[in-house]
């Protein structure tokens, strides 16, 4: 295999030896000016073809060969090649597709560079938009065509930045093949562009000898199509994670290239939930409810059931969060930016519910996964759980409070989760008398900045942490108005805006820094800040300032910029904004809610995504590296202009 393969071309194979040989022969003859590797995954073909594939591997025609024990389905086979061969870009090539252009990869990558980086590129047989011309990439304004019907395209190329968010092919459908449609649906939900080009420019199909035309849809194919309709609905409603769990895991690959697989135990549990969900959707349609988006008895129970399986899954523990937040992007001259398309705010929920003899179970676990809850008559109240939490097992109370008391929710020491989740019931709490506020928390103490937040919001309630199972005679419970995965209601958004507007000061430019944090940083940010400070930007480290001072600085600056992070939730405390925000993604995506909240406060917002490579750390503490010269270019054009001397980091002014 080429040492620095840019592209992993994976070819799932099941019999049809003549098609396999034509595809491999044509591919191997093409230019290697941009190195790629050829991976073949055999799906239980006859022994003659398997023997031939081994010969190809020994002669170097195939770089990687994996032999599955039986036909596991195209998605499973394609995923094996994707998982076991690491490369920046993955491509699934169908057996029988013959490449006709020697320099296909260099031309397509040059063509793709004119689009947005977090995207896919596939071929289609007929472009309904303007004629696609990859060679137009050499001319100004040449850019890829967007697929008009959401089709992913064939011979699709998928960068690691996309698969890190969406995972790989969905194996729910068994041997049938609707995997491109499923991946395309998740791409559409995430807002990632799906670029395409004319297939005939680079490929032709080699017909199999004796092949017949397409026949009628088999019952198995019909079941797969029906299941895809279910999954597409679940993706759109954010009930099911966009990052899908594979049904099989690799146990071993022996010296003879044979792959040993095992079905994931958690997938079997997941599939039970999925099948039950499909049945429920069928019943809703029979009742004349074709769209379940407004059926709370459907959305929340199934969202919790799916999330519960995902939390227990070893796959998501290794690959990251099961429910990543993703941007909706549109072209920009300097990167990837655009407006987040968010669901409209929920109808303001019923504000209060008074419960007698409520049992509060203390917090057990971490912020990412915990057990807790409020129980009445042995039943956990759904409004007292977060999507990451599960109901604890109720037990005999060890303490008692007479009340009335107010259920505050969960107190988190993470700033973003505090604003979105710990304060999610503020819209209702502010309308109550200052009765004691009861919180469950992994850290049962208030940080100074949390006290400052309560002061901004005018809350004088006594805060009490539940440390042992506690029975409360009278407990007021309100549903949360938002969380880290759900948009904020208008009632909550309006209630949080307590700080009066301040007019921006002309010429003041503020950079909100992450460079002093322990993790979740951009490696080059300190050098970027040195150049910004030289040209009049004020560098603010939010963690070093009182919360009111942070908010004041963001209101008074004419331009506020920085890499995305929880500090940009601080505008929630401001009544309104009239300045300019410029946000840059540090990790190839934005949390859409953050962008929406800044805009709704009245600020003009530009957001940009430049390709970022992960370096050290993991999950929330993952550090990244990116080209900060592009950041400087954006800031120069948006604020000072080139005459003010803002240069690129690491270069003198004459070469900028």
List keywords for this structure.
656 residues, alpha/beta, Spore Coat Polysaccharide Biosynthesis Protein SpsA, Chain A, Rossmann fold, 3 domains, nine-stranded mixed sheet, eight-stranded mixed sheet, 18 helices, disordered C terminus, DUF563 domain-containing protein, glycosyltransferase activity, transferase, Nucleotide-diphossugar_trans, glycosyltransferase
Instruction: Report mean pLDDT, rounded to a whole number.
Output: 83
> Under CATH, the topology of the largest domain is which?
Spore Coat Polysaccharide Biosynthesis Protein SpsA, Chain A
CATH superfamily of the largest domain: Spore Coat Polysaccharide Biosynthesis Protein SpsA, Chain A
**Low-confidence spans:** 129-143, 146-150, 209-214, 320-350, 641-656
Number of strands: 30
Number of helices: 18
Helix and strand composition category = alpha/beta
% residues in beta strands: 15-25%
User: What proportion of the residues is helical, as a percent range?
Assistant: 25-40%
Radius of gyration: 27 Å
Question: How far is it from the N-terminal to the C-terminal residue, by CA?
Answer: 39 Å
């Amino acid at each position: 295999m080429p040492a620095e393969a840019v592209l992993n071309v994976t070819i799932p194979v099941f019999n049809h030896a003549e098609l396999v040989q034509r595809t491999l022969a044509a591919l191997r003859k093409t230019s290697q000016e941009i190195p790629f590797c050829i991976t073949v995954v055999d799906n239980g073909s006859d022994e003659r073809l398997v023997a031939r594939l081994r010969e190809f591997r020994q002669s170097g025609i195939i770089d990687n060969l994996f032999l599955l024990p039986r036909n596991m389905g195209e998605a499973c086979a394609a995923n094996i090649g994707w998982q076991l061969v690491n490369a920046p870009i993955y491509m699934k090539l169908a057996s029988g597709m013959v490449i006709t252009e020697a320099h296909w990869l260099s031309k397509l990558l040059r063509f793709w560079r004119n689009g947005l980086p977090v995207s896919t590129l596939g071929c289609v047989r007929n472009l309904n938009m303007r004629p696609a011309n990859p060679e137009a990439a050499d001319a100004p304004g040449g850019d890829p065509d967007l697929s008009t019907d959401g089709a992913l395209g064939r011979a699709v190329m998928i960068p690691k930045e996309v698969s890190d968010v969406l995972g790989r092919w969905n194996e729910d459908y068994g041997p049938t093949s609707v995997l491109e449609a499923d991946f395309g649906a998740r791409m559409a939900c995430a807002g990632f562009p799906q670029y395409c080009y004319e297939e005939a420019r680079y490929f032709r199909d080699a017909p199999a000898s004796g092949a017949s035309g397409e026949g009628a849809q088999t019952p198995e194919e019909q079941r797969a199509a029906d299941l895809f309709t279910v999954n597409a609905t679940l993706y759109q409603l954010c009930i099911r994670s966009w990052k899908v769990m594979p049904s099989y895991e690799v146990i071993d690959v022996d010296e003879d290239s044979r792959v040993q697989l095992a079905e994931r135990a958690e997938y079997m549990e997941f599939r039970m939930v999925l099948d039950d969900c499909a049945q429920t959707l069928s019943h809703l349609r029979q009742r004349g409810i074709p769209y379940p988006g407004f059926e709370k008895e459907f959305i929340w129970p199934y969202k919790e059931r799916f999330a519960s399986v995902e939390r227990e899954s070893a796959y998501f523990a290794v690959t990251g969060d099961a429910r990543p937040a993703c941007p909706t992007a549109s072209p920009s001259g300097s990167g990837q930016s655009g407006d987040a398309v968010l669901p409209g705010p929920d109808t303001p929920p019923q504000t209060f519910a008074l419960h007698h003899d409520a049992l509060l179970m203390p917090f057990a676990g971490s912020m990412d996964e915990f057990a807790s809850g409020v129980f009445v008559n042995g039943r956990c109240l759904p409004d007292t759980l977060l999507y990451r939490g599960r109901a604890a097992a109720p037990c005999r109370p060890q303490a008692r409070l007479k009340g009335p008391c107010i259920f505050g929710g969960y107190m988190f020491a993470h700033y973003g989760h505090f604003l979105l989740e710990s304060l999610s019931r503020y819209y209702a709490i502010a309308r109550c008398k200052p009765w004691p506020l009861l919180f469950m928390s992994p850290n049962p103490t208030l940080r100074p900045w949390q006290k400052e937040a309560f002061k901004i919001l005018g809350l004088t309630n006594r805060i009490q942490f539940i440390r042992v199972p506690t029975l409360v005679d009278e407990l007021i419970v309100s549903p949360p108005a938002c969380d880290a995965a759900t948009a904020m209601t208008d009632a909550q958004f309006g209630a949080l805006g307590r700080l009066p507007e301040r007019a921006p000061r002309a010429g003041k430019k503020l950079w909100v820094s992450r460079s002093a944090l322990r993790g979740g940083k951009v490696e080059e940010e300190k050098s970027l800040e040195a150049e910004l400070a030289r040209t009049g930007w004020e560098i603010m480290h939010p963690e070093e300032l009182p919360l009111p001072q942070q908010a004041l600085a963001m209101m008074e600056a004419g331009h506020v910029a920085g890499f995305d992070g929880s500090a940009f939730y601080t505008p929630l405390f401001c009544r309104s904004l009239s300045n300019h925000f410029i946000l840059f993604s540090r990790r190839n995506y934005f949390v859409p809610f953050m962008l929406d909240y800044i805009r709704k406060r009245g600020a003009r917002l530009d957001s940009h995504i430049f390709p970022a490579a992960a370096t050290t750390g993991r999950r929330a503490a993952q550090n990244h590296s990116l080209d900060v010269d592009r950041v400087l270019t954006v800031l120069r054009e948006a604020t000072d202009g080139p005459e003010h001397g803002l240069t690129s980091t690491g270069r003198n002014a004459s070469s900028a």
